[in-house]
Write a structure and sequence with these properties.
The complex is a heterodimer. Chain A is an all-alpha fold. Chain A has one domain (3-254). Chain A has 12 helices and no strands. The longest helix of chain A has 35 residues, at 94-128. Chain A starts with a helix and ends with a helix. In chain A, 42% of the residues are buried. By secondary structure, chain B is an all-alpha fold. Chain B is 61% helix and 1% strand. Chain B has 13 helices and 2 strands. Chain B has helices spanning 5-34, 36-41, 49-55, 60-80, 89-99, 104-114, 125-138, 143-157, 160-171, 179-190, 194-206, 211-244, 251-256, and strands at 273-274, 280-281. A two-stranded antiparallel sheet of chain B has the order 1-2. In chain B, helix 9 packs antiparallel against helix 10. The longest helix of chain B has 34 residues, at 211-244. Chain B is flat. The termini of chain B are far apart. Classes of the chains: A mainly alpha, B mainly alpha. Chain A binds chain B through residues 39, 41-46, 49-50, 52-54, 57, 60-61, 176-177, 180-181, 184, 210-211, 214, 216-217, 220-221, and chain B through 54, 57-62, 64-65, 68-69, 72-73, 100, 102-105, 108-109, 208-210, 212, 310-311, 313.
Chain lengths: 258, 313
C-alpha cells in the first residue's frame, strides 16, 4: 500500500474513533454479558447456543450498521466540509482517496470485530467453563463476518461516490437485505421461465451473496466449515469488493467537484 | 435568593422526567395486569417459519433460540398458573424446530412439555410424536433423536414395538456404544421390565445437565424402585401364603420365615406396610411421585406439585 493510501486510511480510522464509533462496544458488552447470565434463567439448555448465535449476530449487525452509516458519509462529508479540496490539492489521486477511505473503514471494523470477538469468547468461556475444539469454528464465522463488512463498506463507498448520504444508506441497506436472501432469489430464478428468468438470474448473480457468508447457525452447533467454502468466500469477497471499489473510483474520477 | 432561569428549567425538567417515568411504569404495570391473558396469546406473533426465516435475513439460529425461550416461558406461565390451555405450545415448538431443525433441547424438552397429561404437561402426545419424528427426519445421524423417539413411544404410548424400532435405528449409528441395541433388544423381548425402564431413565438423567429434568429422572428412578420392591414383596407374601396357608400378619413374619432379610424400606427410608389383605403399601404415598404400586386402593399415582418453571425461577 502506498504511503498516501495508508495516510488516508489511518486518518479515516482516527476520525471514526474520534466520532465515538467504538462506543458500540459498551452496548455489545452489556448485551452479551446480560444474555450469558440471564439466558440460563429464562430458557433451557441453550446457553452456549445463545452466546454464539446472539454474539455473532450482534457482531454482524453492529458492524453492518457502522459500515453503512460511516461508509455513506466518507465522501459526502469531505465535500460538505470542503476538506476534500485540501486533500486533492496535494499530490493525492482520486482513486487513492477512495481506496484509502475503504481501508480506513474496514480497519475500523476489523478492530471493532476483534474486540467484540474477545467478548464473545469470554462469554463462551463463562457459560461453557472451557473451550472445545468446535469453538474454533466460531473464529471462522467471525472471519466470514469481516468479509461481509468488506463488501458492505465497498458498497457504501460505491453509492456515496455519486449519491446523497440518505440515498446511499437506503441503497446499501437494500442490497444487504437482498444479498441476505440471495439463496431465495436463486431459487426464484430457477422456477421463473423466459426473459423474466434471465433477469432474475442476472440479478441473483449481481447482488452480493451474504447468505453464503452467514454460517452462524452452523458453528453454533459445532459444525465444521469446509475449507473450500473459506477459500471461495475469501476470493468472492475480494473480487466483489474490488468490483465495487473500482466502480466507485470510476465514478469519482469523472465527478465534477466544483 | 432568586433562582436563575436555567436552574429553574433544569429543576422543572428533572421533576417532569421523574414523574413521567414513575407514572409511565405504573401505567404499564396496570396494562400488563389487564392484558395478562392476551400477552400469553401474543407469544406467537408469526406462525409461518418461512416468513420468519426471510424476515431474519439468515440469522435464523438466534430467532430459533428466541422462539424456544418463548416456548419455555409460555409453558412455564401456563403450568405455573394451573391452566390446561396449551394451545400455542405445539405451534411455538414447530416454528422453533423449523427455524433450527437441529435444536435438540426443543425436541427433548418440548416432547416432555407436550406429551404428559395436565398438569404435568399439555396432554398432546400426538404433537410430541410429530415433533420427535420431525427431529429424526432432519437429524438422521444423531442418536439422541432416535433415543428420544423410542423413549416417547415407551413412556407415553406403551408401544414397545415402535420403541424397539426407534432404538434399533439409533443403534445403527456408531457413537452409541452399543447401549441402544441393548435397549432395542430389551424393548422387543422384555418390554415393560423394571431394568429396561431404569436404563431409560438413567440415560435420560445422564444425557442432560438441566436440574429439573434430572430431578424428574431421579423421581422416576425412585418410583421404579418402589414399584419393583412392592411387586417383589407381594410375590413373597403370596409364597408365604402358599407355604403356610395364611397371610403374614406383619413384615416381620416374612423375615422370621426367611423370605426376606431385614425390614424393607422405600427409597425415602420409610418401611413398607403390610396390609391385612396381603397388599404392600408405602407409608406416605404423597411423598413418592409417579409410583404405580404400593398405593391405597383407588388412589391415583401422585405427581409432583407445580414446580417453579424456568419462567418463574
Amino acid at each position: 500500500m502506498n504511503s498516501r493510501i495508508a495516510y488516508i486510511a489511518f486518518n479515516t480510522f482516527r476520525e471514526a474513533v474520534r466520532d465515538r464509533v467504538l462506543y458500540n462496544l459498551i452496548a455489545f458488552a452489556l448485551l452479551l454479558s446480560g444474555a450469558a447470565i440471564l439466558v440460563g434463567e429464562i430458557s433451557i439448555d441453550i446457553e452456549r447456543l445463545v452466546v454464539v448465535n446472539l454474539g455473532l449476530t450482534a457482531v454482524s449487525l453492529f458492524g453492518v450498521v457502522i459500515a453503512i452509516f460511516i461508509g455513506i458519509g466518507l465522501v459526502s462529508k469531505e465535500i460538505d466540509k470542503r476538506t476534500l479540496y485540501t486533500v486533492l490539492s496535494r499530490p493525492v489521486r482520486r482513486w487513492e482517496f477512495i481506496v484509502g477511505k475503504f481501508f480506513g473503514l474496514t480497519g475500523t471494523l476489523v478492530v471493532n470485530t476483534f474486540l467484540m470477538a474477545i467478548g464473545v469468547l469470554l462469554a463462551l468461556l463463562y457459560v461453557a467453563h472451557k473451550f472445545e475444539m468446535m469453538d474454533a469454528w466460531v473464529l471462522v464465522a467471525l472471519y466470514f463476518i469481516v468479509l461481509q463488512f468488506l463488501i458492505v463498506c465497498a458498497l457504501a463507498l460505491f453509492f456515496s461516490s455519486f449519491s446523497t448520504p440518505l440515498m446511499s444508506a437506503v441503497f446499501t441497506f437494500a442490497l444487504f437485505v437482498i444479498g441476505s436472501l440471495a439463496e431465495d432469489l436463486r431459487g426464484f430464478a430457477k422456477i421463473t421461465q423466459g426473459a423474466g428468468g434471465w433477469v432474475v438470474t442476472a440479478v441473483a448473480y449481481l447482488v452480493p451473496n451474504f447468505s453464503a457468508l452467514n454460517v452462524i447457525s452452523q458453528v453454533a452447533h459445532g459444525d465444521a466449515v469446509p475449507g473450500r467454502l473459506i477459500l471461495y468466500n475469501s476470493v468472492y469477497t475480494l473480487l466483489y469488493s474490488a468490483m465495487a471499489i473500482s466502480g466507485a473510483v470510476l465514478i469519482f474520477q469523472r465527478r465534477n467537484l466544483k | 435568593m432568586r433562582m436563575s432561569a436555567t436552574r429553574r428549567v433544569n429543576l422543572v425538567a428533572l421533576a417532569v422526567l421523574l414523574c413521567s417515568m414513575a407514572g409511565g411504569m405504573a401505567t404499564l404495570h396496570a396494562i400488563v395486569h389487564m392484558r395478562r391473558a392476551a400477552a400469553a396469546q401474543e407469544a406467537l406473533y408469526v406462525r409461518s417459519s418461512n416468513v420468519l426465516r426471510r424476515m431474519s435475513l439468515g440469522y435464523t439460529g438466534l430467532l430459533a433460540d428466541i422462539y424456544w425461550t418463548r416456548a419455555v416461558q409460555y409453558f412455564g406461565e401456563q403450568h405455573h398458573s394451573g391452566s390446561s390451555d396449551f394451545r400455542l405450545l405445539a405451534p411455538l415448538l414447530e416454528v422453533t424446530t423449523e427455524l433450527d431443525p437441529r435444536l435438540l433441547p426443543a425436541y427433548q424438552f418440548g416432547a416432555n412439555f407436550l406429551a404428559p397429561k395436565p398438569p404435568s404437561g399439555a396432554g398432546l402426545p400426538g404433537a410430541a410424536l410429530s415433533l420427535m419424528k420431525y427431529g429424526v427426519e432432519h437429524n438422521p445421524n444423531e442418536w439422541r433423536f432416535y433415543y428420544n423417539l423410542g423413549f416417547l413411544y415407551y413412556t407415553e404410548f406403551k408401544d414397545y414395538a415402535k420403541a424397539a424400532d426407534a432404538f434399533a435405528q439409533g443403534a445403527k449409528l456408531p457413537v452409541t456404544n452399543g447401549f441402544m441395541s441393548i435397549l432395542a433388544a430389551r424393548m422387543a423381548q422384555h418390554a415393560g421390565e423394571f431394568d429396561t425402564a431404569r436404563m431409560l431413565w438413567f440415560t435420560a438423567y445422564q444425557s442432560t445437565k438441566e436440574p429439573q429434568i434430572r430431578e424428574n429422572a431421579v423421581e422416576h428412578l425412585l418410583a421404579l424402585q418402589v414399584d419393583e420392591d412392592v411387586t417383589r414383596l407381594e410375590q413373597v407374601v403370596e409364597k408365604y401364603r402358599e407355604q403356610t396357608g395364611r397371610l403374614p400378619a406383619t413384615i416381620g413374619d416374612l423375615e422370621r420365615a426367611g423370605f426376606i432379610h431385614g425390614a424393607p424400606s422405600d427409597p425415602k427410608g420409610r418401611p413398607y406396610r403390610l396390609m391385612p389383605d396381603g397388599r404392600i403399601e408405602v407409608q406416605d404415598p404423597k411423598n413418592i411421585y409417579f409410583i404405580t404400586k404400593g398405593l391405597p386402593p383407588g388412589a391415583t399415582p401422585p405427581e409432583p406439585p407445580h414446580q417453579a418453571q424456568p419462567a418463574s425461577k
